[in-house]
Design goal:
The protein is mainly β. About 15% of the residues lie in helices and about 45% in strands.
Length: about 170
């Protein structure tokens, strides 16, 4: 099986206010407070889709900030019909949808495979977060697919690309 990865970019000059916010945000040790403050910030500070490069037929990842404590934030610009692999995350993951529509299929680990448990649709202004086991990368196993061209902000407690990949 060939696994195609998204294209990753570092930062964006028009998003300095986001980096300043994130630098302060990541000094907070409580993931739930991080989620609350991020929702509040993003409702007050519009982030346009056009600020981030597309990468058809998948999605692009623009790293907005990486902190010394390993927290990172990135923007994902999804092409319509883009689908991620089934993957896990570090201890904490937070997604906030700014534009478009995303379908998130949730899975549970079963050996080296994943078993689907739920599917949810997210629209602009909606978010979800996951809190799992520290020092593992198989938390919050899911697959994301874009029903429309979309833009989402993601915050992780470590490098999301370390997430374990699963098959069904």
């Amino acid at each position: 099986m060939i696994i195609r990865k998204p294209r990753t970019y570092m930062g964006h000059p028009n998003q300095e206010h986001i980096r300043i916010f994130l630098r302060e945000l990541f000094s907070i040790p409580d993931p739930e407070k991080i989620a609350q403050k991020t929702v509040s910030f993003l409702s007050d500070h519009p982030v346009p889709l056009s600020d981030f490069p597309p990468f058809a037929p998948l999605y692009s990842r623009t790293i907005l900030y990486r902190a010394e404590n390993h927290y990172e934030a990135m923007a994902a610009r999804w092409s319509k019909d883009a689908i991620s692999v089934i993957h896990g995350h570090p201890m904490f993951a937070f997604y906030y949808l700014l534009e478009g529509e995303l379908s998130v299929e949730c899975f549970e680990k079963s050996g080296n495979k994943a078993v689907r448990t739920d599917t949810r649709i997210y629209k602009p202004g909606q978010y979800f977060s996951m809190l799992g086991i520290p020092d593992t990368f198989d938390n919050g196993i899911h697959r994301v697919s874009a029903k429309k061209e979309s833009l989402s902000i993601h915050i992780y407690s470590d490098d999301a690309m370390k997430g374990q990949i699963f098959t069904i």
